[in-house]
Amino acid sequence: MSARWNYGKLNGLGGKDFQLLGRLLNALYVNTIELAQKEQDNFRLAIKEKENKCSRDNLLCYLALRKHDLSDLQLRLAEQGLSSLGMLEGDVLVSIEQVLKHFGIRPSNTSSLCKINAKSASLLLGKRSKLIFGSPSKGRRTYIMVTLDSTDIYQHELIEQLLENGMDLVRINCAHNTDKEWNLIIKTIREAEERLVQRQKGTRSRCMILMDLGGPKIRTGPMELKVRPLKISVPKDKYGRAVRFVEGFLDSEASYTELVDQVTGLSPSTFVIAISTGDGRGLGSLQKDQKITFKDAHDEHQRAITVLERTSPTRVRIGLEQTAYLKEGIKLECQTNSSNNKKYSFTVRAIKPQPIELKVEAGNVLRLYRDARLGHSGAGSGSDSKTAAISCTYPQVLEQVKIRHRIFIDDGKIEALVRSSNEQYLGLEIISPKGMIAKIKSNKGINFPDSTLKMPALTPDDIRNLGFVVEHADLVGLSFVHRPEDLYDLHEILSKLGHQNLGIVAKIETADSIHNLTQILIAGLELPKFAVLIARGDLAVEVGFENLAFVQEDILCLCEAAHIPVILATQILESLAESGLRSRAEMTDATMGQRAECVMLNNGIHILEAVRTLAILLNTEERHQVKKHQLFSEFTVQHAVFEEKN
Predict the structure, then answer these.
(1) How far is CA 164 from CA 172, 189, 207, 600, 615, in A?
(2) pTM for this structure?
């Protein structure tokens, strides 16, 4: 919370007393220095480089300044044709001193504080950005990062085009796939770079690789299993139109019809339709591009399967054109291309039991177990009570969750309030959605925005994965950072692995990380290479969607004050990347990218068009804007700074 600066006689005089305005600004300047000097001892730096000291001191000065609501003062300065201080993040004291000169006021003694001017601040931020991100593209200050996954393996032409059209960095999410797939993705990138060099189209520098550790993402636990029609989903655009096949297999030796992860080793997921053993002879007669039809188990409409390849006498690779539901006993019918027009039919075998989905709406009661038991519905066999219940992947955190705390499930789609607590479970009341049904599935994210969760940012899986990361990546992303100790823990492990200079990116996605951001930034100043990533997905749930824009602005300002590079991420040009369609809101949001040093795009079918568009937007926007101009009013409270000390 920012306190309104005391303008005293200024408001009464209507801003006409020029010298009084100068004295008020000078009083603010002196107050800023005094507060920052008092905090220096609380934030000592182990590395005594002048650049780090200047960044720390400037950050403390900025926080001292933002303790006050300065909007009226800024408007008064603007009325006099003076700088309104709306762009002073990088050089707080020097910016104020430049304005004080117009009032004939000489700056105070700031011998213990390191001052930095605007040019030096810009050069320092650029230096740190280049150190961690590599050389920027010609004519563009802001870097472009693209998330790639296993679907991009061996896509050399696509990777080449991405590199040619502006991709500066690649992000690999270690929460998915294994080191086998990660290695193939990186190999594909390096081979694409070599091909460009051979054609004398080499990029300005080697593409940097960020490997993003999964971290302790809290998710809903496993659910009871139940046999129900199997839904096979086809990828769709924002208008619900199918954009490509989903590939799977007909298999006469499979035990169950099911969805399967990593059947091919390349695609994220696929499906297997088990058919009766006696039907295996018919598979040998199927030809490429032949159609197989069946009635959907959900709406009984006709669906079509296309034969893509016979991989063995008992297995055929197929493509499904529309989302479909299958159940045991459905007939798959096809007509051969032989002269006798003989028809074959295959019978779908048993559907593998699937985790149940809990249907909830506002007013429902739900239990959140404190142990790892299976989630269940409120009725039916296997339930130990009449109340529906779920578990979570980190039940130990529930010790820090209190009555009346909010809990969000599935990226904020479902909101609940803790109404009761006992040794076995938390009793929740569903608050939203209202007027509609929502489904709770296993492995969906859970957020606790009102609870201070004490858990390490590094999981055992993360620590194991670091062995691969340090050998193949240029940067490592630390998910769910809460406090500066999380950075120290990661850097200690990197040092033991002999890679203490690997770049570290702190992902800001929890309420704790927002309030501890000053401490996190000062800890980051002591690392060889450091940047911050604003992960707007979980962050929006943690702080409230309505507050996201304000919190994002505060993060950008604090990082600029500390001269630390920022990556802006989550849903940037998402519709364009996934469906190829532009939206006005996304175009406007993407132009915010020039406020950061790097912008991240998530993968999609039209990712190349998204990269091209973002490069154009950033090039255009940087010619018209440099960072921003704003009024200083409300600001996010920073823990352990000034009166907010713990």
Answers:
(1) 20, 12, 11, 17, 11
(2) 0.85
